[in-house]
Amino acid sequence: RNIKKYFPITGGVLRRTIGHVKAVDDVSFTLNEGETLGLVGESGCGKSTLGRVIMRIYEPTEGTLTINGQEISHLKGEALRKLRHQFQMVFQDPYSSLNPRMSVGSLIAEPLLVNRRGSRAQIQEQVESLLAIVGLSPEARVRYPHEFSGGQRQRIAIARALALRPKLIVADEAVSALDVSIQAQILNLLADLRKEFGLSYVFISHNLAVVKHVSDRVAVMYLGRLVELAPKSKLYTQPLHPYTQALLSAAPEPKRHVARERIVLMGDVPSPAKPPSGCAFHTRCPQVMDVCRSLRPELKEHTPGQYVACHIYS
Ligand code: SF4
Ligand code: MG
């Protein structure tokens, strides 16, 4: 609820704080158990920062973060460490998150050993079962990350993430570095795991087609704020926010029946250190009105389940 994450900007010889980057600026949403929420937006919109706040890698500057009724916004130390089993993150480049000097078996066993999840023999067994779950052979145990392709490395990272049986996985551009055919395999794997383990996902991507493939609901972010949140079926067929409309008009989609006119946005995304007044999108919005420059639109439910932050609808 009302999550903010501001990073100080320092300047001068004394390195005083001279401003803040408002990476996440007042975001509220609920993630249901077993649900996949897609989080889309251009690079720099704050989606990765929001993912890290959800994971409690970052502490929110303001706002409350609750999991199963427990407030975790400011948990620290042992209390946070205990809770960490419940969520895991999968990144774009598994190579940078997998220690190249560790064998695949050790990489997957590590979280189990650290958390004392069984005897050596039991852990060994769990590693083999995790490898099978992600579609790798038991022999992968004795090999090293560099011996695998990008898609296989992502499977290793997923096996490691699954080791402690998390409830929530935040996937940040998890398939963006992979070839399209491999992307589909990993997305299908994630979908299978979701059913098998009752996982929930926050699926972060700049790619609307990928998000469409995996998500139940989709949240669109612009300059640190959610501008639209809707069930997938609504967001892709009747986007309400002018920014969502522009993003969708630019996304290539071969099976589209109704041709959508391409909406070209003028200018660049403004700096999150100096977001525009009122609606942060007003500097680029094709439908801007006077009120947009001074009054910030709140995210409100427009049709059942579809939320939008735009004065056109109020
Ligand atoms: Fe455009 Fe105004 Fe809506 Fe913002 S509030 S998206 S500027 S119409
Ligand atoms: Mg990012």
Write the layout of secondary structure elements.
Elements lengths: L2 E9 L4 E12 L8 E5 L6 H8 L11 E2 L2 E2 L5 H7 L3 E4 L3 H4 L6 H11 L5 H14 L16 H13 L5 E5 L7 H18 L2 E6 L2 H7 L2 E6 L2 E7 H6 L4 H9 L49 E4 L2 E3 L6
Parallel strand pairs: 3-8, 3-9, 6-7, 7-8
Antiparallel strand pairs: 1-2, 4-5, 9-10, 10-12, 11-12
Helix pairs in contact: 4-5, 4-6, 5-6
The structure holds iron/sulfur cluster (SF4) and magnesium ion.
The site of iron/sulfur cluster (SF4) has 14 residues, from loops.
Family: Belongs to the ABC transporter superfamily.
GO molecular function: ATP binding; ATP hydrolysis activity
Keywords: ATP-binding, Nucleotide-binding, Transport
Can you summarize this structure?
The chain is α/β, with parallel strands linked by helices. It has helices at 47-54, 77-83, 94-97, 104-114, 120-133, 150-162, 180-197, 208-214, 232-237, 242-250, and strands at residues 3-11, 16-27, 36-40, 66-67, 70-71, 87-90, 168-172, 200-205, 217-222, 225-231, 300-303, 306-308. An eight-stranded mixed beta sheet has the order 6-7-8-3-9-10-12-11, sandwiched between helices.
